[in-house]
Design a protein that fits this description.
Elements (H helix, E strand, L loop, with lengths): L1 H14 L11 H9 L3 H7 L7 E2 H8 L3 H13 L3 E6 L2 E6 L2 H11 L5 H18 L7 E3 L18 H6 L3 E4 L3 H8 L15 E4 L4 H4 L8 E3 L1 H13 L3 E5 L7 E5 L5 H7 L12 E5 L9 H6 L5 E4 L2 E4 L9 H5 L5 E5 L12 H13 L1
Antiparallel strand pairs: 1-3, 2-3, 4-8, 5-6, 5-7, 6-9, 8-9, 10-13, 11-12
Helix pairs in contact: 1-2, 1-3, 2-7, 4-5, 7-12
Length: 364
């Protein structure tokens, strides 16, 4: 019965737009057993919908009193297995995808240990080929405004700093990807700390005050602290990523290519749709460049900068437009320039629209 319940969970996760592919080894079931050590939690999870619902509606499906079901959903939220969102003072509960969602929350609620980390490492190539094997992309590379030509009109979704400035309350999270790698004995070779992770952004200034559920590894932050966190990440050469949305981007991850599951999927496992490039590409001013090599040797992790005869240039087709190379140039010889209009992409208006489009794509 326990084996069947985990297969049911796996199937339901794979029905979600971002998927949860099966493997010949069955490692995905081992992951689920780490996430749901109690099969009762898995059975309860199966009765939660992806669409947010108040506990009264969920209780009808459980055929149990509301007070009893409230305890059940509180337990699932407290283990990072479902999500709770407050809307007009009422909590709504819903199922999350494995990524982005359950994997990240597994860490925030203390479920990832060395064994789980090993299973995830085995699973990542399979997951990447499914998740990153076709468009549309859920995640977008987002540069910092200081990297972009000053005279250009910059949309908020193309500027990590603007995204934070529009927020009202913030949480700082450790990096689950760097933690997962450290748990298998492969800590970040660039020495980026686990603590310098994601920034969660709310557009409700009272969210932290009213929050019934607060991840134990999260830390409340002011807007100034969130911006300082972003600046440290940019200075350290980390790549900023968020949802591929026009607005209401609820997180900015600060990622290294050696640990980030999304970036590793693109670089190590040849999954081209793990993320979408920004609408900018780096350009090196040959007259200002002193050929120090910092951009190519130390900053660019996407092999987009080439050198021929002490002349450095950018291969736009490989550049993701992150702006990491810009901040480190001692001669300010590098800028981000807008891509040709035909190469630019417009984000989705909402996460629901992304899921709808992605679901249709997966059915083809």
């Amino acid at each position: 019965m326990s084996e069947d319940i985990y297969k049911q969970v796996a199937r339901k996760l794979d029905e979600m737009p971002t998927g949860f592919p099966t493997t010949a080894s069955g490692v995905e079931l081992k992951i689920l057993k780490k996430m749901f050590p109690d099969p009762v939690d898995a059975a309860n999870w199966l009765l939660i919908n992806p669409t947010p619902e108040p506990v009264e509606v969920i209780a009808e499906r459980f055929a149990k009193p509301v007070s009893e079901v409230q305890t059940i959903v509180d337990n699932l939220v407290g283990k990072g297995l479902i999500k709770a969102a407050q809307i007009d003072g009422v909590y709504y509960y819903f199922m999350m995808p494995y990524v982005i969602g359950m994997f990240e929350d597994s860490y925030l609620y203390g479920l990832i240990d060395g064994e789980y980390a090993e299973y995830f490492e085995e699973y990542l190539p399979h997951f990447s080929k499914s998740y990153g094997g076709f468009a549309p992309e859920e995640v977008r590379v987002i540069p910092v405004n200081g990297s972009i030509e000053a005279e250009k009109v910059i949309y908020p979704y193309d500027d990590a700093r603007k995204i934070i400035e529009q927020g009202k309350s913030f949480k700082l999270l450790p990096c689950v990807c760097r933690y997962q790698r450290s748990e298998i004995g492969k800590p970040c070779p660039q020495n980026h700390p686990v603590e310098e992770g994601c920034i969660v952004i709310s557009y409700d200034e009272n969210e932290d005050e009213n929050a019934k559920y607060f991840p134990p590894m999260a830390k409340s932050a002011s807007k100034e602290e969130a911006l300082a966190h972003l600046e440290r990440a940019a200075a350290a050469g980390l790549v900023h990523q968020s949802y591929n949305l026009e607005s209401s981007n609820h997180f900015i991850c600060n990622c290294c290519t050696c640990c980030c599951g999304i970036l590793r999927g693109r670089l190590e496992f040849n999954a081209p749709h793990m993320n979408v490039k920004s609408n900018y590409s780096a350009r090196i001013d040959a007259d200002a460049c002193i050929a120090c090599g910092t951009c190519k040797d130390d900053r660019c992790k996407f092999n987009a900068i080439v050198e021929e005869g002490m002349v450095y240039s950018v291969r736009s087709e490989l550049c993701v437009g992150c702006g990491v190379c810009v901040a480190s140039c001692p001669e300010t010889a590098i800028t981000l320039e807008a891509r040709a209009e035909s190469e630019q992409t417009k984000p989705f208006e909402s996460l629901a629209k992304f899921y709808e489009t992605r679901a249709l794509t997966r059915q083809k």
